[in-house]
Amino acid sequence: MDFESLPNFRTVVPGKLYRSSTVDNVTTNDVEKLSSLGIKTIVDLRSMEELNESSAPRLLDDIFQTVGVEVKDRKPQAPEIQFTVKDAASRQDKRHFFVAFYNRQFLTGTLQRRPWYQRVFAILTMILAFLLDTILRTNRKYLKKATVAIILTDKGILQWYKDMVDYSTGSMFAALSILTDPQNQPALVCCKHGKDRTAIVAALVLGILGRTKQDVIEDYHKSEEGTKSLYQMMYNDVCVRFGAQESYLWARKETMQRFLEYIDEKYGSVEAYLLSIGFSMEDLEEMRGNMQG
């Protein structure tokens, strides 16, 4: 299905799960198209702060309830998920969940894996940025830039993906739990561009279902075409605003290939990774059944 205002849209699991870029800009015509798919749930991998920065029309807010998701780590038990309705809407059965992948757990993890001198430099930079924002009253402009500089590692996009699976484990658990619940299907998973955070979740879902690595790689690579209309915006957001390499805008096959190899090398398999973040074997079997219908 083609959307005029929803780039990078495609099917992950027919009738169960779709993926796309942000839904903030969806037009009235595309609201009707989404309705025809019967989508009941949107799992948005942005933070509420990212949402609040958007000046888009956000027509879906009139239909889908906005729900904030908080995850509490309880190792060795599974994480605890808490839901807070931020904004009610006309449909009680349609919900737009926000599961932030770039949270304190993620930032702490990416700092801790670095050499001590890089950690000290990053912390000092963030303190200085905070002071500048306070003095200049810039609504955390410099702190955001300093934080994103830590998230978008100078080691490139592959390390960024590795950091997501290693340190956004609570958010990963929450997103997959919501998406694979039959009461929430059909569902749509998205982030800002639908290329990176969304790609990791889609890859794990396909991995749960036993799809081949080539299937996962091909699905990822479709974002090269799917984000063409977004490329200038992505360049401004990522490269100009935060000084990241242009390679962060790509969705090359070799990136996903090496990412999947990393999952196998570090965790053993996608299944083993999911077990490590809080799911049980019974959970995985139920998730497969729910996704396969």
Helix content: 40-55%
Sheet with the most strands: spatial strand order = 1-2-7-3-6-4-5
Briefly, what CATH class? Alpha Beta
How far apart the termini lie comes to: 21 Å
Mean of all residue-level pLDDT scores: 93
**Using only CA atoms, what is the Rg?**
19 Å
Spell out the CATH superfamily: Protein tyrosine phosphatase superfamily
Query: Which fold name corresponds to the CATH topology?
Result: Protein-Tyrosine Phosphatase, Chain A
Give the tally of β-strands.
7
Count helical runs: 13
| Class derived from helix and strand content | alpha/beta
Shape: globular
Q: What count of structural domains?
A: 1
CATH architecture: Alpha-Beta Complex
Strand content: 5-15%
Sheet with the most strands, sense and barrel status: 7 strands, mixed
**How do the helices and strands follow one another from N- to C-terminus?**
EEHEHEEEHHHHHEHHHHHH
Question: Which regions have little confidence, pLDDT < 50, spanning 5+ residues?
Answer: none
